[in-house]
Q: What sequence folds into this?
């Protein structure tokens, strides 16, 4: 195996142009880790935040961006028994995905679903870990409940719509165009709301309010989300595209028994992520293999054109997932 690899690094905090191809040593797997030769890597909003200097890697993680990918295991560290050299996997990564080789805890790997290629599989970990842990874990979504997801045409949104629909929820979504709304409805949303033309608060209130809202917008959406919730409803916050600070009347939270919570995935412990992987393998992978749930693919770029991939993502013109072709 080669001793060096091509990778894309962040040369300084800034815009997409700070991403540069470079040569790095191939990392070695530590105890409990595997080394994956990546074929494809997913592109996600946290990558752009890290590039901008707003989302530092956790201690010990690679400084390279990239939180998910798919490929072939080429080496295993001490104590790894669940995976072998030659296995094809997709994996949640602590960082380092914008490279030809990456290490990650073995427990954060999942098998490539039957019938799925590595390109699609590379798009599963970050969004599916996030949606499963926040919508069904923290948010405790149940069949028959009214569920609203903002950014319905994003990677997170398209995943949340499909999974919530598959588990029997009534799904609502917001998106910024008629075309994006149509995608949301094809995926299982009973009502997609063009936020440029309609008020999601009024739409949800007419339905009795949302039992659960998944939001990555923040800003002035926070008080509007509270208004859109049904009594005893839950709001799960996973990002703040419009900022984390806003004035909010917490009397409504008390009087209507609302729950406001949230999480970020990357800083959580390896053990927590391993438990999420177990849940996905048990409850979600059978849905993928049955063809009931699949990643929505937007576009692909060569690894060396990661800057163009970031420009595409930050334009918000994309629908679904953007991937980097590594191999």
A:
């Amino acid at each position: 195996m080669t001793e060096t690899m091509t990778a894309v690094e962040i040369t300084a905090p800034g815009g997409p142009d700070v991403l540069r191809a470079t040569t790095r040593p191939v990392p070695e797997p530590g105890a409990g880790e595997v080394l994956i030769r990546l074929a494809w890597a997913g592109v996600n909003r946290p990558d752009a935040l890290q590039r901008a200097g707003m989302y530092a890697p956790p201690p010990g993680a690679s400084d390279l961006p990239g939180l998910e990918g798919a490929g072939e295991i080429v080496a295993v560290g001490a104590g790894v028994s669940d995976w072998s050299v030659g296995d094809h996997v997709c994996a949640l990564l602590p960082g380092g995905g914008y490279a030809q080789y990456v290490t990650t805890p073995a427990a954060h790997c999942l098998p490539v679903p039957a019938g799925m290629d590595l390109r699609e599989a590379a798009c599963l970990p970050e969004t599916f870990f996030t949606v499963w842990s926040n919508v069904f874990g923290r948010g405790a979504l149940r069949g028959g409940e009214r569920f609203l997801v903002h950014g319905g045409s994003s990677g997170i949104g398209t995943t949340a719509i499909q999974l919530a629909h598959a588990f029997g929820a009534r799904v609502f979504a917001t998106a910024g165009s008629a075309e994006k709304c149509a995608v949301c409805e094809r995926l299982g949303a009973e009502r997609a709301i063009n936020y440029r033309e309609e008020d999601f608060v009024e739409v949800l209130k007419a339905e009795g309010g949302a039992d659960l809202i998944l939001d990555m917008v923040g800003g002035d959406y926070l008080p509007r989300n509270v208004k859109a919730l049904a009594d005893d409803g839950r709001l799960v916050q996973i990002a703040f595209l419009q900022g984390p600070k806003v004035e909010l009347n917490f009397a409504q939270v008390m009087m209507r028994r609302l729950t406001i919570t949230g999480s970020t995935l990357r800083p959580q412990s390896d053990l927590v992520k391993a438990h999420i992987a177990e849940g996905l393998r048990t409850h979600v992978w059978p849905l993928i293999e049955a063809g009931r749930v699949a990643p929505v693919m937007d576009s692909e770029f060569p690894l060396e054109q990661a800057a163009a991939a970031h420009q595409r993502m930050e334009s918000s013109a994309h629908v679904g997932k953007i991937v980097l072709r590594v191999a």
Notes: Residues 128-262 form a domain with the Rossmann fold fold (CATH 3.40.50.720). The chain has ten helices and 15 strands.
